[in-house]
Amino acid sequence: MKDSGVSKLATWTVVFVAMGVGLVAEAQAPVELDVERAAGAEACPSAVVIRREVSARLGYDPFREDAERVVDVAMGAADDRVTAEIVVRRGPEVIGRRVLGPEGSDCTQLAEDLLLALTLAIDPVAATRGPDPADPAPGNGAAGAHAAVANDGSGASPTDAPPDPASFEPASSEPASSDPGPRDASPPAPAPTRFEIGAAAIGQLGSAPIPTFALGARVGIVHRWLAAEVGVRGSIPVDVPLPREGTSGSIDTFLVTADLGLCGRVEGFELCARGAFGGLVVRAEGLPDARTGSAPYVGLGGSVAYVWSITDTFGLRPSLTVLAHAVRTHVQVGDDTVWALEPVAGTLALELFHRG
Questions:
Q1: What are 205's strand-pairing partners?
Q2: CB atoms near residue 215 (< 10 Å)
Q3: How far apart are CA 299 and CA 347, in angstroms?
Q4: How many Cβ atoms from other residues are within 10 Å of residue 316's Cβ?
Q5: What's the DSSP call for residue 101?
Q6: How many angstroms separate the CA atoms of 349 and 306, rounded?
Q7: Are 224 and 187 in contact, with CB atoms under 8 Å apart?
Q8: What is the pTM of this model?
Q9: Cα separations (Å) of 139 from 51, 57, 162?
Q10: DSSP count for the chain of H helices, then E strands
Q11: Tally of CB atoms within 10 A around 218
Q12: SS3 call for 149
């Protein structure tokens, strides 16, 4: 490798490690590759070329259709340059992003930077070590990588000519002999669907005579940016004195609900439409005709949350929920209303969740 190539490799290594795209702990962890070429970038490397060249540089094939990490590559042309945006994500969470393509660049100039950047993003340890010399795969080293690109279905030998942009053909037009397998010609697999289960401590306001606490549990399913979930919530009963002339009484309330949510997630933030359905139990003591009664509870509204992934499988989710009561419960003594459910209730929750 030439000195300029060494400098470029060192520079990209520092960039990608600093931005957290290729973590050493994830070395040799499989990734899913999703490549898009917009108008003006048809001559840029195809998914087939990228898979073959990156595998040759790493010394192993890191690509799997159902991998947890996903590498999205979007190539396009704007003004006087061709660019490639690399986004690395784990499920819906973006863990790294980089845009390549200086002014005046074309697909030929972009190809080497793109292949080098992807190699470092996927496995910086293997990228800086280089492939096994005994590995028979094409693209052994920088010269081999250029040769494999130049010989991508064109029939030219590595020494005949430098890489030609025309050799970067879409996967559908490459000769069958250069296709490493039916997997490369198939559409990109969707991001894996993940499940979440969590337990939460909840503060409530507006669903009892005074602020109360509750405990909750949630089960959810997440696919890319969309999430659907169902949960249960039960409040801790409180006894609230209601002094009246000539008597001293109290009431306590107990709320149990099933909560449904449909959510969208972007960059860790979550916005949900929510509904809560259940029952409100009210017990009166020390008041005339005191008794225990129950009423249906229906609340409709929304919530906002932040999904903080502590590890790949555990995280915290603080959330704020506001619900409008479709059914309002009143507690009366004679003709007097001693307590009524507020029109709007709010909850503040902190949840510990597990993602599988």
A1: 346
A2: 14
A3: 12
A4: 15
A5: -
A6: 11
A7: no
A8: 0.48
A9: 11, 7, 14
A10: 6, 16
A11: 21
A12: helix
Q: Which amino acid is at 160?
A: D
Task: Please report the DSSP string for 220-277 in residue order.
Answer: EEEETTEEEEEEEEEEPPEEEEEEETTEEEEEEEEEEEEEEEEEEEETTEEEEEEEEE
**Greatest extent of the chain over all pairs of C-alpha atoms, in Å:** 106
φ and ψ at residue 182, rounded to 5 degrees: -65, -20
- The backbone torsions φ and ψ at residue 251, rounded to the nearest 5 degrees and listed phi first, read -135, 150
Q: How far is CA 115 from CA 9, 46, 179, in A?
A: 11, 11, 18
Record the tokens describing residue 42, joined without a space: 């048809």
Write the single-letter amino acid at 153: G
Go through 318-352 and write b for each residue having 16 or more CB atoms within 10 A of its CB, e for each that does not. Answer: ebebbbebeeebebebeeeebbebeeebbbebebe
- For residue 231, report the phi and psi dihedrals to the nearest 5 degrees: -145, 170
> Can you tell me which residue has the tokens 């697999």?
189
Per residue in 149-185, pLDDT (tens digit) is: 334 443 333 333 333 433 333 434 444 444 444 444 4
**Spacing of C-alpha 281 from chain mean position:** 39
Q: What's the burial of 167, exposed, middle or buried (CB within 10 Å: 0-12/13-18/19+)?
A: buried
Residue whose tokens read 């939460």: 200
185's torsion region: left (phi>0), alpha (psi -120 to 50) or beta? alpha
Q: Which range has the worst mean pLDDT, 214-218, 302-306, 309-313, 350-354?
A: 309-313
**Burial class of residue 141, CB neighbours in 10 A (0-12, 13-18, 19+):** middle
Nearest to 133 by CA among 24, 56, 28, 54: 56
Burial class for 288, CB neighbours closer than 10 Å (0-12, 13-18, 19+): exposed
**Neighbour tally for 64: CB within 10 Å:** 15
Euclidean distance between CA atoms 239 and 286, whole angstroms:
12
Determine the average pLDDT of the residues in 285-305: 82
For residue 291, give the amino acid letter.
Answer: R
